[in-house]
Write a structure and sequence with these properties.
Blueprint (H helix, E strand, L loop, with lengths): L1 E5 L4 H12 L3 E10 L14 H9 L3 E6 L5 H10 L6 E3 L6 H14 L2 E3 L7 H10 L3 E7 L15 H14 L10 E7 L5 E11 L4 E12 L3
Parallel strand pairs: 1-2, 1-4, 2-3, 4-5
Antiparallel strand pairs: 6-7, 6-9, 8-9
Helix pairs in contact: 3-4
Length: 224
Amino acid sequence: MRVAVLSSGGKDSAMAWWWAQCKGWDVIALVTVFVQGDDSHMFQIPTVDVVEHQAEISGIPWITVQTSGQSHEDMVDLHHALNPLEIDGLVCGALRSDYQRTRLERLCHDLEIHSFTPLWHQDAGEHVKQMIENGFKIVLSGVACEGLGEEWLGKELDLVSFDELKSLSEKYRFNIDGEGGEYETVVVGGPHLNGVIELEMDKLFDGKRGHIRIQKYTQKVHVP
């Protein structure tokens, strides 16, 4: 099975990528959508350029898609990018958004390829906890809800900080997996990567929401 992985560089696309690897499939490309705007109901915006480094460290081609992010236009732009690829399917990390899943399924139907959403309706807390336990290095790249302040920007999730995040999600009633846009992530290491990525960053926070601005990426490849 030859597949492309739709990747924002965050935790859900990283897990979907690893799932494809565990299936023994040939991941022939990582595909990243760059939204030319401040908001998108479909795609992550902050820190998506990390995928270039994830791709390089893993020896996988990286395909970028520029789009305005407007409904319909984003799928047309993605269609143009995927159409030349000789693939059997597209893998993405959709968790619970019917909007995302159905739009991607229609796109894949038009391209006559399979659509794979291996994380669909997984238990939110267990999904993130299992990623941590399996060695994924997940860094919070954006926060946008009550309970998550500037101190969470750039923080790597481990089992201790995840328990703290879970407690805050119960207190302030936000989704523990960030599925509602409460936070965004960037993955800098894990079983799907042949190394780790170190970040030098600034924090931008307005008192209610914020994101990290990455100044420098440093790749460290695992030596066999």
